[in-house]
Design brief:
single chain, mainly alpha, about 65% helix, about 0% strand, elongated
Amino acid sequence: MQSLYEQDFYGWTQKQAQLLREQQWHHLDLNNLIEEIESLGRQERQQLRNRLSILIAHLLKWEYQPTKRSRSWLATIRVQRIDLEQLLEDSPSLKPYLTEAIQKAYIKAVELAASETNLPLKTFPSECLYPLEQVLDNRFYPGEPSIELEEN
């Protein structure tokens, strides 16, 4: 017989929340509850890496294709920085993971930048040359300045 967890995940989450509120510890589905809580932590780390990948990809595009800079690229850079700031405010324990996350995110960022610019992969450095502080700094845009876009 299938458990509620297997039949109706949303229903299972609501039941577990109710049991927690009512402090009915002995009725909790502990094995699945533990697994789901651990999964939430992994999702936060994944979200951090994904946002960093998108941000770094756009920083690479900004630097390596200065003639194609657009308001769309600028908006993506700004939005990813805002989202990263909010993610780190909500989960400050992710901060020690940032250095490792940037290294992992950079691999994906290079793939994204290469596919979106049609530049060969070898165009981009093998390791991220942007320090963490610059990646997250709202004033940092690599390469030559593009005043008309950056001022708005």
